[in-house]
Design a protein that fits this description.
Helices cover 33% and strands 20% of the residues. The chain has 389 residues and is α+β, with helices and mostly antiparallel strands. Strand 6 and strand 7 form a beta hairpin. Helix 8 crosses helix 11 and helix 10 crosses helix 11.
């Protein structure tokens, strides 16, 4: 009897351990509200090598080879969304960056490995996309978002957003050529001088001393911008990372960064520059936010306004798959409604509505940032837009 009772007890303990482990695994999984689709461009000479696809806000198209796990693909999508919508309000933080990424067709490719012909095939045939970086399967760890040496997702997605967005939209701040921008002027100080090619050694006062001979001046500037952003996020301040990156970057804590690199600290923390401040955690799922458009199975399709920025007219487009109540309203940055364009029941079909930058009184509103809201039955879509002078 004792043996049987002991055996039953051990089985209960074993079962309890399994339940705890399974529960912990479920609870630890990141919440990501994007969907993996089949490659929409299977016959494209560059994109055709991939089989899987995620569209992040139309800003970044993620293409992955077949043997990349769902978890890793969705992790990349989540990090991209968090960096673009850092306060996670469902609205891209900088509409100009959004427009640039869409216009240049920013792409984030995920390859199985560096070996094989896939990478060469991709870049040899990429004639209609902007790729600031690539990712490999072994560089993605959803359990350690952005952790140096484990997950390169934050770094490579930032490179893509910066290269296809910030460098293009704000060249005075982020251009990569020598003597061309705030960024490169600050980098010359951080490196202890202007070095077009890799110097034999860096001076003692330098705190950024990247020593990869394959990385030219512009590449150095891009890496420098990455280090500044993630340091400000407090993403690399653990002792192991500080030690591991010291040969390249000495300012591994926000406090060191603020005290030493004042130029870049001020740039990154200026709210007008709308750079991401919070480190991605791999979770992105917002209620009532349409994050995958053009879904023919959905009750409606809502398209981003165009142009954005605009002056003085911008156009809103939507497609009703069935009869629905529609409301389109414009708000100022403080949340005050300044114009209601549509507020009625509409039959199914494709619709175009324009706003001429006037308020309820018919007077032109001043230049600046505005919000628009499109409500279709119980769904609501909100986004930023910029009216130029």
């Amino acid at each position: 009897m004792f043996t049987n009772g002991n055996g039953i007890f051990l089985r209960y303990v074993y079962l309890l351990i399994l339940i705890i482990l399974c529960t912990s695994k479920i609870l630890s999984q990141n919440q990501v509200c994007f969907e993996i689709e089949a490659n929409p461009n299977p016959n494209h000479p560059a994109f055709g090598i991939f089989s899987r696809y995620v569209n992040v806000f139309d800003c970044i198209k993620i293409y992955a080879e077949n043997n990349i796990s769902d978890e890793k693909i969705l992790h990349v999508a989540s990090v991209a969304a968090e960096l673009l919508d850092n306060n996670e309000d469902g609205i891209i933080d900088d509409p100009l960056i959004e427009s640039s990424l869409i216009q240049l067709n920013a792409v984030m490719p995920i390859f199985q490995s560096e070996s094989g012909n896939a990478i060469d095939t991709f870049f040899d045939n990429l004639y209609d996309g902007c790729t600031g970086a690539v990712l490999f399967r072994n560089e993605i760890d959803p359990n350690q978002p952005g952790h140096w040496g484990d997950d390169a997702t934050v770094e490579e997605v930032l490179h893509t957003i910066n290269a296809c967005g910030h460098v293009e939209v704000y060249p005075a701040l982020y251009d990569l050529e020598p003597n061309s921008s705030y960024l490169t002027d600050a980098m010359d100080i951080a490196r202890g001088g202007q070095y077009i090619t890799l110097p034999p050694y860096y001076p003692e006062e330098a705190w950024y001393h990247y020593d990869d001979w394959t990385c030219d001046y512009g590449c150095m500037a891009m890496e420098y911008l990455y280090w500044c952003i993630v340091t400000n996020m407090d993403l690399i301040s653990d002792a192991q990372t500080c030690f591991g990156i010291a040969n390249e970057w000495e300012l591994c804590t926000p406090e060191l960064f603020e005290a030493t690199d004042t130029l870049m600290f001020n740039l990154i923390n200026d709210p007008l520059n709308m750079l991401p401040q919070q480190a991605p955690d791999g979770n992105y799922c917002i209620d009532n936010v349409k994050i995958s458009k053009d879904d023919n199975n959905s009750p409606s399709q809502i398209f981003s306004n165009y142009p954005n920025p605009f002056n003085p007219i911008t156009t809103f487009r939507y497609n009703l798959q069935k009869d629905a109540y529609v409301n389109i309203s414009i708000y100022d940055i403080l949340g005050n409604k300044i114009r209601e364009l549509i507020n009625n029941q509409q039959p199914a079909g494709y619709r175009i509505v324009q706003w001429d930058a006037t308020n309820y009184m018919g007077r032109h509103v001043p230049a600046g940032m505005y919000l628009y809201s499109i409500e279709i039955d119980d769904s609501r879509f909100m986004k930023k837009m910029i009216l130029l002078k």
